[in-house]
Design goal:
- With about 300 residues, the protein is of the alpha+beta class.
- Helices cover about 40% and strands about 25% of the residues.
- β9 and β10 form a beta hairpin.
- The chain is globular.
- Bound molecules: (R)-mevalonate.
- (R)-mevalonate binds next to α4 and α5.
Length: about 300
């Protein structure tokens, strides 16, 4: 049984989304995690994940390893006994720890491939809430935005704890994603924002409210195809992320290079302090802006078009 799940980017609202404000996120289908599950001639559950150099029987790796925890938890909830012998092949073109949702994509693809192979049917909502439980094991206090956009593979207007809401894209638009090549320490940046919030709740609640307003305006701008306005909103969101201390010199540099090369707006995307920035661009300028980012030190770029699913 095979399953594939896309990468994702957060367009607006990261970090504030952990505090109940909305976020906009979209799938990035140019990169994906792919999982194939088949019956094995060897006894046990054998994982072959060349990208992370993992070739092992599930019980020989720590049970809290992200891949092992999906397998153990799924076998537990599906009550399948005795455990079947399986070969599980995992590949992914999503860069790890870059803010593109690689962990969530592996979890979702593995959950679907494994549950289908076991004839344990899971609706999208079940896959999503299972993936959220797995994200919580590894990331502290995640909002659930990553697993939601990866599970449904559609643009989402996400509010923590609320049913999925998608949004229409008035006019398809182009985003250039630039990777700093530095691992985004999301758990740490989420923890540091929490410390700031704990030290002055009133101040940070206001900042998160401002982000929430930007997200609502951005949704309207996307629905009505107002790209200049959307670009300006990206710049405003980035200023607030800087205030939250989650940007970095490398992200700020790529963002300013993109703006100088003609982007309509740019910001960091995801946990920050590394990982990716995104720039909203006119389609015909995308190759030049991508080149400018690579020249300025981006480890890789992806040009992606956002459309209604
Ligand atoms: C990480 O992709 C997005 C954050 O907002 C954390 C979260 O929502 O769990 C930084």
């Amino acid at each position: 049984m095979k399953s594939s799940a896309p990468g994702k980017i957060i367009l607006f609202g990261e970090h504030a989304v952990v505090y109940g404000r909305p976020a906009l996120a979209v799938p990035v289908t140019q990169v994906h995690a792919d999982v194939e599950v088949s019956g094995s001639s060897r006894t046990g559950i054998w994982i072959d994940a060349p990208g992370i150099d993992l070739h092992a029987e599930v019980n020989s790796i720590p049970s809290d390893h992200p891949v092992a925890s999906v397998i153990h938890n799924l076998l537990f909830i599906s009550r399948i006994s005795p455990f079947p012998s399986l070969d599980i092949k995992i590949t992914s073109s999503i860069p790890v720890a870059s803010g593109l949702g690689s962990g969530a994509a592996v979890t979702v693809a593995l959950t679907r491939a494994l549950s289908s192979h076991l004839n344990y049917l899971m609706a999208d909502e079940e896959v999503n809430s299972f993936a959220y439980e797995i994200e919580k094991l590894h990331h502290g206090t995640p909002s659930g935005v990553d697993n939601t956009v990866v599970t449904y593979a559609k643009p989402v207007y996400f509010v923590k704890g609320q049913p999925i809401e998608t949004f229409a894209v008035g006019d398809p638009f182009t985003i250039v994603i630039g990777d700093t090549g530095i691992s985004a320490p999301t758990k740490e940046s989420v923890g540091d924002v929490r410390k700031l919030w704990e030290s002055d709740e009133a101040k940070w609640e206001k900042v998160f409210d401002e982000v929430g307003e930007i997200v609502k305006q951005a949704r309207k701008a996307i629905e009505s195809g107002k790209m200049k306005e959307l670009g300006a909103l990206m710049n405003q969101n980035h200023l607030l992320l800087q205030e939250m201390t989650v940007s970095s010199p490398e992200l700020d540099n790529l963002i300013s290079v993109a703006r100088k090369a003609g982007a309509l707006g740019a910001k960091l995307s995801g946990g920050g302090r590394g990982g990716n920035m995104i720039a909203l661009v006119e389609k015909e300028k995308a190759p030049d802006i991508s080149k400018a980012l690579l020249y300025a030190g981006a480890a890789r770029t992806i040009i992606t078009t956002v459309t209604t699913a």
